Amino acid sequence: TIYLDHQATTPMDPAVAEAMHTAATECFANPSSPHAAGIRAFREVERARGTVARFLGAARSEIYFTSGATEGNNLAVKGVVGTGSGAPVRHVVTTAVEHKSVLDTCRSLRAGGHEVTVLPVDAEGRVDPARVAAALRPETALVSVMLANNEVSTIQPVARIAELTRAAGVPLHCDATQGVGTLPVDVRELGVDLLTFSGHKIYGPKGIGVLYVSNALSDEAPLVPLLHGGGQERGLRAGTLNTAAVIGLGRAVELLAAGREREAGRLAALRGRFLAELAGLVPYTLNSGTGVGFLPQAVNLSFEGADAQQLLLEVTAVAVSSGSACNSSAQEPSHVLTAIGLPPERIRGSIRVGFGRFTTEEQAVRAAHALAAGVLAAQPVRTA
Ligand code: PMP
Fold first, then answer.
1. Does the annotation count 174 as an active-site position?
2. pLDDT tens per residue across span 280-307
3. Based on the domain organization, do 132 and 192 belong to the same domain?
4. Is the ipTM of this complex over 0.85?
5. Which residue, among 356, 149, 154, 352, has the nearest Cα to 256 in the 3D structure?
6. Which of 81, 97, 185, 357 is the most exposed place for a label (fewest CB within 10 A)?
7. What number does the ligand 1 atom closest to the CA of 149 have?
8. Which residue among 178, 202, 211 is best mutated to probe the pocket of ligand 1, counting the most ligand atoms within 8 A of its Cβ?
9. Do residues 180 and 320 share a domain?
10. Total-model pTM
């Protein structure tokens, strides 16, 4: 199978697997243990934390390991708002195209009596910073805007939004899960106070992620933890660290940092080759942009009259996604494609194709042929 579903997850880089194997067998001691073996594990964990910190332009003390972006997003939003009983009613601003781990977290806050503003986006999936500013209120506790969208690849104007939230004294959280792989992500340049990502979208392990929280924010208004216990991660996230996964994530970040810009260019070229090949075989409509302001490695497109779910099952030679894989169990149309104004038929015929580190040009071309053949085979025979 030609794997072109890198927005759902990425294959683990062999160098990461190797680092994890060594970590799991030789670095098994509890990194909180004060004996020599524990200290060794602690050192390895802290080395990985340092790698992540440098990668984000943050301090080591601002990096917290979580189980992934879902937990990071939950912790950022609930941690800042505070969900204890008797807490004052707070307000959160977010966008209609966020991942469900942000949107559903906000919905749970609403159920708890807090207020949430979900901002609309334009036809490209972009939120207007002026709308963010206009939505701020004295009781606004947090703004959460993603770096790049997992379905339509739109890059949000996070740095511009940060200028506005900063001026208003409101913390800004950014879900950078889809952006870290190909975009430069420096927390100071972006101006964010909190930022999340997951290991498995950058050729690292699943079940591990990062939450950045600026020390300025922690000092001013410490986050309320979701998990209480042994006080790990400076009391913000209790539980024995998944040492091997942390070390694997550190290795994945090292690999990423080494060649991100060149790789982003290579991926954009692969995508271009795929689309050019496809154009000669079957008509399609783009649902996402392929220029400035969009991730270079993915594209969302629709085949007219096609049922994408059916197509994915029939074209076994290629692994792509219809809508968002994170929601694939839900049969409702994608909330992102709906938010950018696509009609239901176009959503029904939509697929997301995402290229990755191990994709070759030959695979991109073969995938175009396999998908086109699948689309044409499914079309009803036209009679004169
Ligand atoms: N945010 C975004 C933008 C994502 O694409 C994903 C993964 N689909 C997540 C959050 C959740 O990541 P995880 O499943 O690793 O918790």
1. no
2. 999 999 999 999 999 999 999 999 999 9
3. yes
4. yes
5. 356
6. 357
7. 3
8. 178
9. no
10. 0.96
